[in-house]
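Query form — protein MerR family transcriptional regulator

QUESTION: What is the three-dimensional structure of this chain?
INPUT:
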Amino acid sequence: MEKSPDAFRTISEVADDLDLPQHVLRFWETRFPQIKPMKRGGGRRYYRPDDVELLKGIRHLLYDHGYTIKGVQKLLKTNGNKFVQAAASGDLATMEALAAQAEEEPVAPVTSKVAPPSIDEDELVGRPKAPSTRRFFGLIGPGEEAREPTMSGGGIGKEDRALLQEALFDLLECKRLLDQVR
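ANSWER: The structure tokens for MerR family transcriptional regulator are given below.
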């Protein structure tokens, strides 16, 4: 028996619909305050249709477009929930209209003298993660040489950091593929 499109969904129904483990949805609730399922006795979660659409948009941006969690958080902050929901359905007209509306809204002047936080390159809104070059696993392209890691000032160099990020991306992709097989 199918539920009505307006019916609330349990976490297991949403997880199955999005092809995600339930713990990922619980984790996203900690990272995206916009996700607010209704909780009944015993902590059982019920997701509204808008919550499900927002989760679909977040999943689409994270997994299909390679955004970071911080990138999606910034998209939500600057453009709102409807923008991310429209991203899931591929509604480009709505996305463009909402983005234009967000740009037109006046920004309150800054009254404190606190310096703005620095933004890391990989945290910029709208910039997906770079695809893996597989350099980390020794599959070096033609004309490249293997090299030793460099440590400058007790930290990791920029190129080594990029290699570690690629390795992490590869491992997460492997985990995602393994989770699909299970």
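ADDITIONAL NOTE: Residues 107-130 have pLDDT under 50 and may be disordered.
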